[in-house]
Every structure is written in C-alpha cells, then in structure tokens.
Design a protein that fits this description.
binds S-adenosylmethionine; 3 domains; single chain; RNA methyltransferase, TrmA family; alpha/beta; OB fold (Dihydrolipoamide Acetyltransferase, E2P); S-adenosyl-L-methionine
Length: 393
C-alpha cells in the first residue's frame, strides 16, 4: 500500500470483528479489519495496509455514530494504535471484553459457560507502570501497528504520571538507542530505565538493575528482565479473587506455577501452610528470593513448570497456573489431569490460549466454578481472565 496515496472508501457498514478489538467491513472483493469503529456504524475509512493477506483500515468519519462512541481524550489516537478502545465509553469497553472472552470460548467449542461481568479498573487512565517506547531520531514514541510509522508521544494517557514525567524529561534526547523501557514503582516512587543512557544530557538516572513496588502491603523487588503486573490495583484485586476461590484455611499446600517474582506466592503465603513457587527465569527467581525474605513457608524452584509438575506426590491442595500468552505446556495439562489438584486457578492474558487449555482441563477431571475477566488494560482490547476450577473426582 502506497502511504502517500491512501485509498478512501465511503459509507462502509461495520460489523463485529473482535480480532485485536477491531471491527470488520465486508467489501465485495475483500474483508477489512477496521480501527476506530464500533459495530453497526456506517463510516468512511482509509486503507492502511495489507499484512499477511489481511487488509486494515481506519475510520476517518462516522456518519451514524454509535451511542457508545466518545471523543478520545488522547490527541494521538489513530496515529498511535496502542489503545484500540479510546473512542468507546468505558462501560461498553468492558462489555466488548466480555464478548471477546465469550467469542474465544465459542471458537474452542466451549458453550454455555457463565462468564462473569468484567471486573472494572479503578483507573481508566494513568494506570500502567511500564512503558516500552521506540526511538526514532532521538524522539520517544510508539509505532503504528498498521503503517509502521513512528509516532512521537509526549504524554501517554494510560501511563502512570511517574512514567509521563520521565518521558517528558527524555523526549528528544535519546538518540543513542532504538528502544527504551521505563518502569515506575508508584508505591515506592522509584524507577527502572533501561538501557543506561550515557550520552543523554538529562538529570534523570538510568540503567537501574531493579526497582521496587508494594502490593497489598508486601514489598517486591523487580529486575529489568522480570515480569510484573502492569496495573497494581487490579493485580491486588486479582490476588484477592484467587484467595477467595481457593478458600484457604491455613493448612494447605499451594503450588504457584509460572510464579514470576513471587507475586501470588507472597500475597497468598499468610493463608497457606506451604507454598511452592515454580519459575524458569533466573532473574525473576533472584527477585523472588528477595521478595520472600522473612516469609518462611515459601520454597522456590527454578525450572520450567513442565519439567517439575509431575514430581509432586499425592494430591495438591491448590495450584495456580499463570503462563505467558502462549498458555500452558501440553504436558503440564496432561500431568494435572492425571494428578488433579483440589482447586485450580488459571490466570490468562490471552483468552484464546485459555479457551484451548480449558477445553483439555474440562474434558479431564475438572469443573468450572467461575470465569472472571479482569480489566488490567483500560482503553485497549486486552483482557486478563481468571478461570477458577475444582477437581470433580
Ligand atoms: C504472565 S507471567 C506471571 C508471573 C506472576 N504469576 C505474576 O503474576 O507476576 C508468566 C511467568 O512465567 C514464566 N515462565 C514462562 N514460561 C515458563 C515455564 N515453562 N515454566 C515456568 N515459568 C515460565 C515467565 O518468566 C513469567 O515470569
């Protein structure tokens, strides 16, 4: 697609799309995925790109705006494609996320499952504690997903004010690197900025090895290579939802697989007799070692979950699986179907991986207690989902 001569198509009716939170438009000779629209609207669109056999377009005018449409408060919306839902009111964003989870379940032929309403985020803006920015001619910004154009961003609506402060200080001064990661521990007011900037003429320290934050009164050390939940208040809600489901009495052994820096292990340890945390990343395990200091009922295993999950003898009381987007390894699912824990919590950031894995678990010895989507990522199509299961044997 020639970017200087974009193709405009008028009066297109938008249908439900759901991929990446986009709507879809059926034209006589092709189907397009459309950014910035809402199902049922008639709009004019500008073609962006064809990628991997798919066409992408952007709404430039809504002739019949949906009642769910709002004016995006971000001036970069559309140029920046990071927040797919900025033009949709927050209540409807939550309804769409519910629909996204339901649609993935239906694709996996999981029908008739009662999915709870999405747990809203307390903050619709300013919630993200981590920005990964790309740099072009020293300017920090994001890359448009469709056109691949770099968009300079001076203030990002969804980032914590602490991140925006650093962004303002570094803007235009980072020519020495192509990518930068800014993380902010809002409850401890400290930063991690990587890589270390040696040429930038700024009085902002960078190159920190780790930063610190607090969840539910517990201190966490998080190093540059380690995962940490991006929305602190929602992470706390998620930990409480998990705790409620597991109904812990203090006598249980909990296995926390894909444990990261020990988030759930630490937060649930006061309610368990013993916690075993499994994590493959050496950096995250090193952080977890610090994070569990003073807590004597947590053991850490540095390993892939699939290499150790079959070594537990007897029935586990409780198991948390919180894998990366690709979901749990098939052998992990096979092992827990053979030796099922009494209670299982599956935490998923990709509803399609969750649906695929749930299909296996529900064909085995598990039944669902509930499915609770949690909005960790307002203004975007992303949704975290908790599946709470029990062994039915
Ligand atoms: C989505 S994060 C969850 C971390 C943690 N539960 C939390 O809430 O902060 C997934 C974690 O799984 C780890 N991981 C990825 N593949 C793994 C595997 N096969 N076995 C164990 N850990 C793995 C990653 O390093 C990452 O820390």
């Amino acid at each position: 697609m020639n970017e200087t001569a974009p193709e405009i198509i008028e009066n297109v009716r938008l249908e439900e799309g759901l991929n990446f939170g986009l709507t879809s438009a059926s034209l006589p000779n092709r189907t397009l995925e459309v950014f910035g629209g809402i199902q049922g609207e008639t709009v004019d669109i500008r073609l962006f790109a064809h990628k991997a056999g798919r066409g992408y377009a952007q709404v430039i005018k809504a002739h019949t705006p949906s009642s769910e449409r709002v004016i995006p408060s971000c001036p970069y919306f559309g140029d920046c494609t990071g927040c797919t839902f900025q033009h949709i009111n927050y209540i409807h964003q939550l309804q769409l996320k519910h629909r996204i989870v339901t649609a993935e379940f239906e694709k996996a032929e999981l029908f008739g499952i009662d999915i709870s309403p999405v747990v809203p985020s307390d903050e619709e803006s300013g919630y993200r504690n981590h920005a990964r920015l790309s740099i072009y001619h020293a300017n920090l910004g994001f890359v448009n997903r469709f056109s691949r154009r770099h968009i300079q961003i001076d203030h990002c609506r969804i980032m914590n004010p602490g991140i925006n402060k650093v962004l303002a200080g570094l803007q235009g001064k980072c020519g020495e690197t192509r990518q930068i990661s800014i993380r902010y521990g809002s409850n401890k007011d400290n930063y991690l900025i990587q890589p270390k900037l040696v040429k930038a003429n700024v009085d902002i320290e960078s190159g920190q090895k780790e930063y610190h934050d607090i969840l539910l009164g517990h201190n966490f050390c998080i190093s540059a290579a380690s995962f940490f939940q991006v929305n602190n208040p929602q992470a706390e809600k998620m930990a409480n939802l998990i705790k409620n489901h597991l109904n812990l009495s203090g006598s249980e052994t909990l296995v926390d697989a894909y444990a990261g820096v020990g988030t759930f292990a630490v937060l649930l340890s006061p309610d368990c007799k013993r916690v075993i945390a499994i994590e493959e990343s050496a950096a995250a395990v090193k952080d977890a070692c610090l994070n569990i200091s003073g807590i004597d009922n947590i053991e850490l295993i540095q390993s892939k979950t699939e290499d150790v999950i079959n070594q537990f003898e007897g029935q586990m009381d409780a198991l948390i699986l919180d894998p990366s987007r690709s979901g749990a390894h098939p052998s992990v699912l096979a092992t827990i179907c053979q030796n099922p824990p009494r209670n299982l919590v599956y935490v998923a950031c990709d509803p399609s991986s969750l649906a695929r894995d749930l299909k296996i678990l529900l064909a085995g010895p598990f039944e669902l207690s509930s499915v609770i989507p949690v909005d960790m990522f307002p203004q975007t199509y992303h949704v975290e989902t908790l599946a709470l299961l029990k062994c039915k044997l």
